[in-house]
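Example with several molecule types.
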Amino acid sequence: MSAGLGAAVGLGVIVVQSMVQRIHEVIFAIPSGHHLSESSQLDWWRVLLLPIVGGALSGGASALIRRWRPREIVDAIEANALFGGRMSLTDSANLTILTLISSGFGASVGLEAAYTQVGSGIASWLGQHLGFRRSDLRTLVGCGAAAAIAAAFNAPLAGAFYAFELVIGSYSPLVLAPVAIAALAGTLMVRAISGEEAIFGLDAQVHIAGTDYALFAGVGVLAAGIAIGTMVAVTRVERFLRRQHLPLWLRPTIGGVAVGLVATIYPQVLGSGHGAIQQVLEHGLPWSILVGLIAAKALASAISVGAGFRGGLFSSSLLLGAVFGGAVVVGLQFALLQVGFAEIDLDRTAYTLVGMSSVAAGVVGAPLTMIFLVLELTGSFLATLGVMVGVIIASLVVRLTFGYSFATWRFHVRGVPIRGAYDIGWLADLTVGKLMRRDAQTISRNTTVGDFRERFPLGAATSVFLVDDEDRYAGTVATADVHNSDLDDKLDRPLHEALQIPTDQFLLPGQNVRVALARFLGAATETLAVLDGARTLRVVGFLTEGYALRRYNQELERSRAEDLGDRTLFGPG
Amino acid sequence: MRVEGRRRRLNRVLTAVLLGCVLAAFTLGALDQRVIAEDRNDVLPVPLEAVLLGAFFAVGSLPVAWSIIGRIMLPVPTFFLYFTVLIGKSPPLPYYAAFAVAAIYSGALTALARQLADRPDRPALGSRHPGAGHS
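Resulting structure tokens for the full complex:
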């Protein structure tokens, strides 16, 4: 099944790719087969005006879609983290159309977000219709994403590890087979239709000396800074436009104006940037233009995504990194020449690859994907070793100083509490409402201690919940406490006078088990009442700490066992 | 509260400096794209021109009263430098288009510097929208 899915997704990727290419050829008048970002002889008026038109179209379409379906579009990572892999195919199609418009009209965004949305959307739809279980559906969504990235880059290993690192959240032997098969099928489909060539052609052999590895570590540190800067810049642009109180539909048009202005000088920023990456890898560019292009691409990408064009930063970060790596090697070579080490010849391709993969690893948050991507693009283990140094350092620095990849940063900004694709959706499903017992014993708070003892002898109920005259919650008493001999001389006094009873310790049905456990800890009690609402205060049930802990533990074990692909990991049952 | 204010101010200063560097890098690459010899007739060395433009922008974006000096210095050099880029690059823009685009660059950068120097951090009391009141 994953083979069929992979092939279908591969076909989908080709269709999207071809459509964007055709749009570029028609509206930007580029020669057939050329990439937009490698075309330096574009008509100035097209460069200036088409991103604005794209912004207007994208903004208008977004507004229409938002009116029709006002909720946020769920991507593969969010679906797997919170919704057990459930995604909407309609939303995925909408997002793909918006990305097509954005990238087609020259916005500085990548198509990978659309590819993975198509792939995982189809996979989720299929899995839901076939009645897949939660863990299997999550794996299938990962298969869709793996096939999409594998097909996009003609790189099955990179595709598979993209799914493990970003969409499924972990690697396990159980999910290896379906994900790898889907990635391979996606790649084979692309190779059957478009040919065997790697997405970036590299002819040069890579030469790396021992000292280069130390320099690669430095490149990794700086690449992390660029990655963080770009991610933060997107949010700053978004916030800046929000402060201007512009309507949502107008923001991409404003973004289009800015992208057009940048592209008038640096046309390489238009579109996903694959052509420009090839140009940098193959021929290199003068140092000053590389430095300018770093600024231009970072600005154009941040403006495009921040203004509301749809698309991702995968390709953008690859170009940004390639340009950065190219600038570093030219700068280092110049510095070596100045200090009298003219005989040392740094390998331009190696540094470009290290820069490319390090920035992308920082932004995308998938270090292994980037390492395998370079391995599959170059076929060179030497280059891969060098890239590994840069990528590991960049990922580590981003993780320690910033703590997010671009996807999780966007979730953070939106207030969605996830840090990756790890399945935490079960936690949201495990609510107090589902765990509570409904046979709560209630009694008026004005009942005397004596009456209480008669009605609830020791052993009858562990806890009883007090209510006031309007049947609203008024505290919890432990039956054992009321039977305590200290109260023997207060038999005719009402409970709320005889005992100190806090009234603010209760749970609500919608709260999840972690919130409930925190409440138990704070209240230092074994049993908490569950109320229908914080204002209405009607007792609808109760929950004990022991039961909540037991269920939490069971779900943790189940989730961990499913992640590792062994449902009997913690024993039968 | 005071620490928070100081942190916010430092953040704004760093943003101004960082954006100044970005503009300097952008300008450096742009100036080196001129292929027509007559348009490379610069008053100062190209890297110095780019750095100065970035510095004017950074000063103009600082959250201080004297940032106006940076904004006064910014528009004219920006216009002329970008005008030479746009008519000197390959393919060049027509004269009228280069003039208009350079003017937009100049105006937009000055307006952005003004906005960064004086952006509202918190809403004025009684304002309808957050951030509606300018400090």
